[in-house]
Write a structure and sequence with these properties.
- By secondary structure, this protein is α+β, with helices and mostly antiparallel strands.
- 49% of the residues lie in helices and 17% in strands.
- It is built from 15 helices and twelve strands.
- The longest helix is centred in the N-terminal third of the chain and has 40 residues.
Length: 473
């Protein structure tokens, strides 16, 4: 009875259609803006995880939080050396136990000066082996040359840096690290030039370099585990026969030793596919099979680290990227707040329209009360009308929002601003429509309906029925 009467009242008044239009339009704008915001969030994340950070990073706990770029809060004008990740081998063994992890790869990070033909530029070096690194950072595209081989000196430059300094494949680049009055200088050849999917100021400073050169530059002692090599049984038996305390007891001076007097056998690695056996690294970067597992895995890993007493932690891509990603996040947050304020103003107008719609019916409500209609019936009837309007408007608004979102994506609107390219993770505006976005927008429409009928109905019911019938409010 109440529902039938509510539907009849809605379609008998033209003002109902105007209200539905206003609400539907506002909900469609909300759906569209949310899809754009979801796109920027996904765009930033995809850009960083596929080019720079991976899905999660294992890093040492330090006095101040560190990112893959190092300590970004200098106090004395110099950057703090990154701490070494320990215990490295035990951490790797633990990571191997998780099937969610597809790849993980260690790296060293540090700040240096890049010198080519007398021109110096600041740079951030990532010392790592390239095989797994390029699988984790799958957005990196090799434009010229080939990644440097394991155990050999080499560097990989981005196209932006290569064009900036005028270097090409085979060019020798000097790296300089100042240490007091002296400096450490190392040289390595360019073996590959690569590109990132979008422009980013941080990416323009990154140089991928062989880990041995990075350790020498950053004055990191390369330590190796005794468990990383195995000897053949014949050599083990020979070593066991030596009396190490009296090994040189009968030694005599000789004029020289010929190299041909000894033969050396190649030592095999226990860890298959591990190209660098050093245990001195700053970070471990991980790629997951499903990035949706990141949050849960970080929580589980940190619990394991704490139980084992290891002074390390797992962090997400945003923390690993450092201040640059946080800067983009806060700018996006400010943009969201601005849009939210505009939408709130629009919803207030809509709410006032619904309030006026019910207040204009004070005479009708008074007549209903005069003929014996209960207050509860009037309340439920007004609530039913408002909720039906809100539901219809919410559905129409969500559909319109999806259509608008699809049109914008299909138009491939180009982005000429580098900041917007970073936000959207590409060169065009691409909206990301999600089911949760639609549900949230539809709930907003229902909330508007719930709020809009409370005050006016309460006011109308307080009015004397006789006075209401006379049209006095």
């Amino acid at each position: 009875m109440i529902l039938k009467l509510a539907i009849k009242n809605i379609f008998s008044r033209k003002s109902s259609f105007v209200i539905i239009f206003f609400i539907a339009f506002s909900i469609s704008v909300l759906v569209l803006t949310n899809s754009i915001f979801d796109s920027t969030e996904h765009g930033i994340q995809e850009t960083y995880t596929s080019s720079f950070t991976g899905d999660l990073v294992i890093r040492p706990k330090f006095e101040t939080p560190i990112s893959l770029l190092g300590d970004e809060t200098p106090v004395t004008g110099t950057f703090t050396d990154n701490p070494i990740l320990t215990p490295y081998e035990e951490i790797c063994d633990l990571l191997n136990e998780f099937s969610e992890i597809k790849y993980f790869n260690p790296q060293i990070s540090g700040f240096v000066a890049l010198d080519f033909k007398g021109r110096k530029f600041p740079a951030i070096i990532f010392g790592t082996e390239t095989e797994k690194y390029l699988k984790i950072m799958h957005a990196i595209k090799i434009e010229k040359g080939f990644p440097y081989e394991s155990g050999k000196k080499g560097i990989m430059l981005s196209t932006q840096i290569a064009n900036k300094i005028g270097a090409g494949i085979g060019s020798d680049i000097q790296f300089i690290v100042a240490e007091g009055l002296s400096a450490r200088i190392r040289t390595a050849p360019i073996t590959a030039i690569y590109s990132y999917p979008i422009e980013n100021s941080i990416f323009d400073e990154l140089v991928i370099i062989s880990p041995d050169v990075a350790r020498e530059l950053l004055d990191i002692n390369a330590m190796y585990s005794g468990n990383t090599i195995v000897l053949e049984q014949e050599m083990e038996d020979l070593l066991q026969t030596f009396d190490m305390e009296n090994l040189f007891e009968d030694a005599t001076d000789v004029d020289g030793i010929k190299k041909d007097d000894f033969s050396f056998k190649e030592i095999e690695s226990v860890k298959e596919n591990d190209e660098d056996f050093s245990t001195t690294w700053n970070f471990i970067v991980c790629r997951l099979h499903d990035s949706n597992d990141t949050k849960k895995l970080i929580k589980l890993l940190n619990k394991k680290f704490k139980n084992n007493g290891w002074n390390v932690e797992a962090v997400n891509w945003r923390n690993a990227a450092g201040s640059n990603a946080l800067y983009l996040y806060f700018l996006r947050l400010i943009l969201n707040v601005g849009i939210f304020i505009v939408l709130i103003a629009g919803f207030i107008v809509i709410n006032n329209t619904l309030v006026i719609n019910i207040l204009d019916r004070t005479r009708e409500i008074g007549t209903m009360r005069a003929i014996g209609t209960s207050k509860a019936f009037v309340c439920f009837e007004c609530m039913a009308e408002t909720m039906i309007i809100s539901i219809i408007a919410g559905i129409i608004g969500c559909v319109l929002g999806m259509i608008f979102s699809g049109i914008i994506s299909a138009c491939h609107i180009p982005l000429t601003n580098s900041f917007l390219r970073q936000l959207f993770g590409g060169n065009f505006i691409i909206t990301a429509m999600t089911f949760s976005n639609l549900i949230k927008s539809f709930i907003v429409s229902l909330v508007i309906g719930m709020i809009a009928w409370l005050y006016p109905v309460h006011t109308a019911l307080k009015t004397n029925p006789v006075t209401a019938m006379q049209g006095v409010k």
